[in-house]
UniProtKB/TrEMBL annotation:
It comes from Alteromonas naphthalenivorans. GO terms for molecular function: mechanosensitive monoatomic ion channel activity. GO terms for cellular component: plasma membrane. Residues 254-338 form the Mechanosensitive ion channel MscS C-terminal domain. The keyword Nucleotide-binding does not apply. Mechanosensitive channel that participates in the regulation of osmotic pressure changes within the cell, opening in response to stretch forces in the membrane lipid bilayer, without the need for other proteins. Contributes to normal resistance to hypoosmotic shock. Forms an ion channel of 1.0 nanosiemens conductance with a slight preference for anions. It is a multi-pass membrane protein. Residues 350-372 are annotated as: Disordered. It comes from the Bacteria. This is Small-conductance mechanosensitive channel.
Length: 372
């Protein structure tokens, strides 16, 4: 083993290698610290999310990269001073490859999870399904990374893939209902027929707010404060009325009937005035909605028409309709407009039926036995 002369001092190679690796390590960590600090300060000045995410995702992978560079320096020094044999050098090279793959997995995992977290914060439909999407992404990244590691180690991954295929088939058959619900949940999240917070009506007529879309089922909170738990597969195949899509605004039809002797033009004018007044003054009315009246039926005792109002949300329609009915009733009374109602007269006095009976003379002794 050769000795090293430095400034007149005779140093053993082990000491030179140790000092070199330590100094290189300290230098690289200092460079990393300065680089990340400058990078973070630069990203904080911008409004972009991705550069900040990139800076935070590089922290741990850069640390692993520094250790890989240490291994390369150590391997170069060992080879220079002929300290170790060739098999040890190949082991060091293999370890550095595994560390590089690990650093890449950690970087991709943190960056992908950060992207998902940002998207779920801006999307109500994804917020409740963050766990599902994160699990899928992490599983894909880690699975691909493990397969690459096994290939780097010289292990054939073909039998593993074949075994995974057979195992996956058996698991899929055993967990068919669960997997069906899972992929139905993914479909609901991607297709977005419903979102968290939407008020919906199921095909079975239950109504409620969507609380969350989970792995297996969707939770719907009903008005009486009960919760319906519906399997995702059932929900994906059912007809659903979404009262919050495409917007929360809702038309409110109100049916009214007036007397046949009414002036219909005057009735329409008064009704529209009341409707517009309610939509402007009521806190849950749409003040810029162009309301209208449509006559449609000659009924038994009235001419019927429909007034179209507009509410901000599904539940507001009850209050809008109530306020309109009260105001319209008061205005009709002031204008002399009659809202008729059917009157039925019941004749309780009925004549007795006449029965004409023809009588014949019947002897008094009829029916008695003849006298002897």
């Amino acid at each position: 083993m050769p000795e090293v002369n430095f400034a007149g001092l005779v140093l053993v190679p082990e000491l030179v290698i140790t000092v070199t690796v330590i100094l290189a390590n300290l230098f690289m960590f200092l460079i990393k610290r300065i680089f990340l600090r400058k990078f973070l300060l630069l990203t904080d000045r911008t409004s972009y999310f991705y550069d900040s995410l990139l800076a935070h995702s590089l922290n741990l992978p850069l640390t692993i990269l520094i250790f890989v560079i240490d291994i390369w320096i150590l391997n170069w020094l060992f080879d220079k001073y002929d300290i170790v044999n060739e098999s040890y050098t190949s082991s060091i090279s293999l370890a550095s490859k595994i560390l590089l793959i690990t650093a890449a997995i950690l970087f991709l995992n943190r960056f992908a999870v950060g992207l998902l977290a940002n998207q779920t914060q801006r999307s109500d439909s994804l917020r409740s399904s963050t766990g599902i999407i994160k699990g899928i992404v992490k599983g894909l990244i880690v699975g691909i990374g493990i397969l690459i590691m096994l290939g780097t180690l010289g292990i054939s991954i073909t039998p593993i893939i074949a075994s995974l295929g057979i195992t996956s088939l058996a698991v899929a058959l055993a967990l068919q209902p669960t997997l069906e619900n899972f992929f139905s949940g993914v479909q609901l999240v991607m297709d977005k027929p419903i979102r968290v917070g939407d008020f919906i009506e199921l095909e079975s007529k239950e109504q409620g707010f969507v609380e969350r879309i989970g792995w297996r089922s969707t939770w719907i909170k009903m008005l009486p404060n009960n919760t319906i738990i519906v399997p995702n597969s059932v929900l994906a195949e059912s007809k659903i009325i979404n009262y919050f899509y495409p917007s929360k605004e809702l038309s409110v039809p109100v049916d009214v009937g007036v007397h046949y002797n009414s002036d219909l033009e005057h009735v329409e004018k008064v009704t529209l005035e009341v409707a517009k007044e309610i939509l402007v003054s009521h806190e849950w009315g749409i003040d810029d909605y162009d309301t209208f009246v449509v006559y449609h039926t000659f009924d038994n005792s009235s001419i019927n028409f429909t007034v179209m109002l507009r509410a901000k949300e599904y539940f507001h329609r009850f209050f809008i309709k109530s306020a309109f009915i009260k105001a319209l009733h008061k205005r009709y009374a002031a204008e002399g407009i009659i809202i008729p109602y059917p009157i039925r007269a019941i004749n309780t006095e009925q004549e007795s039926p006449r029965i004409d009976v023809q009588t014949t003379n019947i002897p008094n002794n009829a029916g008695e036995p003849p006298s002897q």
